[in-house]
Amino acid sequence: MIDLAEDTPSNPLLRLGAQPIALAAAALLLLIAGVTSIAIWRAYTGATPETDRVIASRQLQARAALASEQLVEKTKGLEVTQQESIDQLQVVQDQLSTMKRLLASQQADTKRLSEQVANLNESIDGLRQSFASVRATEAETPSVTSKRPARHRVHASARKRSRG
Q1: What is the spatial distance between Cα 28 and Cα 44, in angstroms, rounded to a whole number?
Q2: Nearest CA to 42 among 51, 55, 32, 31?
Q3: Which residues of 112-138 are buried (b: 16+ CB within 10 A; e: fewer)?
Q4: Is the Cβ–Cβ distance between 37 and 44 less than 8 Å?
């Protein structure tokens, strides 16, 4: 008995495999047709993805460079502002220390003047008390002075003038 099933392949892929040149030629024609259609489409629209990508990447690089330059400028501006703030703070600190020294000096002068005023007040009180005690002693003791009449005094002074 002869097997007829072996002579006729049942798988359609096996039939195509029997003609590899025809299969390769068909694949080549499809490939050429695809490349030709892409080339025609690009020529017709005038847009190529590669140049678009290059242009887009250059734009991104330009934007990144611009942003970087802006960041550098802003950073320099911040550095200048920070240095100015530091300088101003140093000036304020110097002024504060000067004011503290002046305040301490004024407080010392005020204390010294207060002590001098207190000493003067004590001296004035002492003088008042001594003056009051002298008046009190003068009032208690009658004065023993000879009193001449006013006429005699006038004549006595006129005599001294005439002699001299």
Answers
A1: 24
A2: 51
A3: eeeeeeeeeeeeeeeeeeeeeeeeeee
A4: no
For residue 154 the two structure tokens come to 């006038």
Residues 27-82 have pLDDT tens digits of 999 999 999 998 888 778 776 667 778 888 999 999 999 999 999 999 999 999 99
Query: What's the predicted TM-score (pTM) here?
Result: 0.39
At residue 9, the 3 state secondary structure works out as coil
Token pair belonging to 34: 């695809």
What does the alpha-carbon distance between residue 54 and residue 63 come to, in Å, rounded to a whole number? 14
**d(C-alpha 50, C-alpha 58), whole Å:** 12
How do residues 90-115 score in pLDDT, each as one tens digit?
A: 999 999 999 999 999 999 999 999 99
Token readout for 29 is 């024609």
Q: Which two tokens stand for residue 91?
A: 């000036």
The residue to which tokens 């993805």 are assigned: 49
Q: CA 154, CA 110: separation in Å to the nearest integer?
A: 57
Q: Could you tell me which of 59, 39, 63 has the C-alpha nearest to residue 49?
A: 39
∠ at Cα 33 (32, 34), nearest 5°? 90
